[in-house]
Amino acid sequence: MGSRLDDVLKILLVVLLIAVVIYGVTRVVERRGIKPPTMRREPPRIVAPDDDPDFLWDLDRRKRHPGPKSDPKADPSPPDPASDDETDTP
Prior knowledge:
Oligomer: single chain
Strand content: under 5%
Distance between the termini: 129 Å
Radius of gyration: 40 Å
């Protein structure tokens, strides 16, 4: 019976040593302030003008309700002379 008691005491000693090591490591980590790695935030994505909802809304509004054509920036293409030319065909 004495050897059985020795085996139980050895097992308890091993469990106690493991608990002390885990406690010690936990205290060191807390004291040093070592934190688990955090997820890095991705930088904000650059939005192109054709992806910008405000740009698309304004573009759609301009298409539905065109303003005066006096603004040269609004229509930078020159008039097509072929469409204005009325040729007399015999």
